Please model this.
Amino acid sequence: MSKGQQRRAEVLGRLSAGAISKDDAGSLLGLSRRQTNRILKDYDLSGISSVVHGNCGRIPANKTDKKVVDPILSLAREDGKYHGFNVCHMADLLAANEKIVVGRSTLDRLLRTEKIISTTKRTSQIRRKRRERSSAEGMMLQIDGSPHDWLEGRGPTMSLVGAIDDATGEIVYAVFRPTEDLAGYLMMLRGIVTSHGIPESIYHDRHTILRSPKPATIEDELAGTEPQSQFQRVMSELGIVSIAAKSPQAKGRVERLWKTLQDRLTKEMRLAGISTIEDANTFLIEFRPCYNKRFGHKAANPQDAWMTLEETLDMAYYFCKRESRKVREDHTISWLGKTLQIIPSSSDKCLACKSVNVHVTPEDEIFIYDGKRKLEYKEIPTQSKAKISKPVAKTTKPQNPESLAKRRAWLFATKAA
Model:
């Protein structure tokens, strides 16, 4: 018996012998008079065995069967299939792949009892006020890039560029890139606009790709404008409001998305044997709907806020890197060491000595625009310059002093004669 049971047996024995009153016994046991009478009656009938609970030594009816526990533990240990998975993710995969249905709390208790997962407590964090979600889908997107060892050493390092809807928590778009670059963000925004529509606003960090760090020039101040990065320009032309966060916590939803994906996505790509960036992007197409079904939820307002896309929208005009070039008198421009010849039509005006814009898409396709009018062009092959041979200096052999003295003697003898 436990110490508490031994103490109760001692008090009941003294009460049964008349050594103490029922009120005193109830005070010692922390029971009411009615409960004291009940356990005293049981004590008089069954003796000291009545102190021990009737379920003591019995197997609980809700105990997890050992036939279920052993496969779970073998899959969760270091040499197991699901080693390192978090509890929620492992419970989902056990039900989907292994047909083992177990509750999250039960699985957590089993893993902690076997010391497969850590039992350390989390450190306290600074409490912040949580911003309410947007009311409608498409009202706000949170975008970011996450460089991480997504392939766990099986392939090249990659950065995941993606966007999450603030209202629903669903992944709207995601793509793996070698690095966090402008092309990845342009591909992301173009894919969102094509599949969903134009969002009202985009919440992002202060990366130089997303926000220009340059100070405003005198010309900008006079014109009432601010320096813009290439991505800022695209958002401005599409009418998207750009919101720059001042801290990672301000865009916490996309930061929590990376934390979830760095745990779940990396391990599921490990199970699928993904080792290249091409296969990883293909895997994302299947993974994204599963994630949205598991973690997404309906927006408060069923009417979405996506702005419809014009059918005649020129993708190459908007979703590109844009730079200005001056047209030469022969209607050519220079671009990265190449000479591009503009092909004017009979109705085109002369562009000599005027500026045109060169647009480079994420796929490195090059287009030339005069305003919003696309110009035809062709690349002129560069002529290889002829190699100029340097004159070779003539080398004279050093003369022998004896032969030189003989020649001089002969010369003098000839003059004397």
About this structure: The CA atoms of residues 29 and 396 lie 125 Å apart. The chain is about 40% helix and 15% strand. The chain has four domains: 3-51, 66-113, 141-295, 316-380. The mean pLDDT is 86.
